[in-house]
Amino acid sequence: MKKTVAFLVVALFALVMAFGMGATDDGVYAGVSNKAYRPFNSNYYDGLNYSLFRNPSDLAVSRLRIQGLSVTDASYNFAQAVQNRSVAEAIANITKFQWGDKKNWIGYILGLTLEAGGGYNDVFGLSVGSGSQINNFAFGLNIDVTEKSMPFITKDEEGKEIIDPSKRSILGNGYLPLADFALSFGYGRRIIEMDSLTLDVGAAIHFAGKVYMKQVNFDTIRDVLYNNTGFKDLPARGGFALPVDLGVTFSFPLSHIKVSATVNNLNGYYYTRNYSSLDNAALYRNGTDPYTIYTPWTISSMVQYSPEFKNFNPTVTFEFIDMNKYFMDELNRSAKEIFRYMSLGVKLDIFKVVSIRAAYKYGYPELGVCVGFKGNSFEMVYGYQERGEEYGFKPVDCLSIRFKLGFEK
To answer: Mind spelling out the 3-state secondary structure of 52-64?
Structure first.
């Protein structure tokens, strides 16, 4: 067993070193495309996505979990957008199940877009996932599509793409449809089990892909509307990677405390090419000019307490994410930057049917409610996220709604 573990560790680091040679950033798109993929829902209370994308040692607890279909939409800049009457009417029609009317969706997304402001932001996202855990093995297929906004891209005198500092308004933004997807496999194992202590370990690997259309601005949209160019003919980029997540969890059954540590996105190198159209990028067909995008790896930790009451069970969690990034990049900045890396949350499960939670998450409040039973649920979460270069510069609100069909035992 020890020889097998040693071999796997050596092989993993050899893989990371081999794949990492020649990695570059993504130029003007680095503020958007160099992010490691993680589905919208991957917090500790999620279950399957938490095990596959955050802490695979959670799989050491043998379960049967089937996630037949999970669908989440995330609407950013929601509070300001809904104050617009046409946006409010579009939302009302959508809630009345008038889903086939494109005008409602166009009005809704356009309203969110107009509130994006200058700089980097998210506008709208859709996340779809499916998978299962059987005993200590798990697999999942996840796809996220997000509309991003970013500063306007222009070219300098030498023809090199640069960010235009003179355009800082919504009309000066560029927009970037981005799709992330992953086929994931994970395994966990309990290696120590005593009355006072258990030790779980786990690993997950992702066959991940990233496809994004090169920046679209209002001139591009005008050309599409006037049939001067086709949407499918706009240039795009796409790449794939094989990132790995590792996790370890110490549990103290007598005190109902768990302490975990994770290393996420090892080998996060995307082998990327340029494509003449979005269709070709999605199929990785006829690509040119190959290059490698590096998405950073991270170290995170979590402490969790749950008394495991039967009918009214609270869970208190403290997280410190991206610890290596904080200690390497943020110590010389304002002391309040640490809030972007910490989360303190409380979740109350009522009769295992209703779940209410509140958190001060990464520097901002978040509230959520979930109603469900045996793996089927409906969930609403509202909170804020930082989109500025420093904490407090650009808080962006987000409303997410999720439907999940499945079975858990």
So the answer is: HHCCHHHHHCCEE
pLDDT of 97 reads: 72
Q: What is the reported pTM? A: 0.89
Q: Model confidence at 282, in pLDDT bands (50, 70, 90)? A: confident
DSSP code for 234: S
Residue with tokens 């005190």: 255
- The confidence score (pLDDT) of residue 7 equals 37
**Pair 162, 98: CB distance under 8 Å:** no
CA distance 319 to 284: 37
Beta pairing partners, 207: 183
The DSSP code for 17 is H
Min mean pLDDT across 5-19, 316-330, 360-374 is at 5-19
- Measured CA to CA, the distance from residue 390 to residue 212 in angstroms comes to 26
Report the alpha-carbon angle 280-120-115, nearest 5: 105
Write the DSSP symbol of residue 322.
Answer: S
Find how far residue 363's CA is from the centre of its chain. 17
CA separation for the pair 251, 406 (Å, rounded): 28
The beta-strand segments (E) located in 45-197 are 63-76, 121-135, 137-151, 153-155, 161-163, 173-193
Mapped onto helix, strand or coil, the DSSP state of residue 92 is helix
Burial class (CB in 10 A: 0-12, 13-18, 19+), 214: buried
> Of the ranges 113-127, 170-184, 214-228, 279-293, which one carries the lowest mean pLDDT score?
214-228
Q: State the Cα–Cα distance between residues 124 and 403, nearest whole angstrom.
A: 17
Question: For the chain, what is the radius of gyration of the CA atoms?
Answer: 22
The number of residues making up the chain comes to 409
Q: Residue 250 is which amino acid?
A: F
Q: Where are the alpha helices (DSSP H) in 163-298?
A: 218-225, 278-283
Beta strands in 214-311 (DSSP E): 236-241, 244-252, 257-266, 269-275, 288-294, 298-305
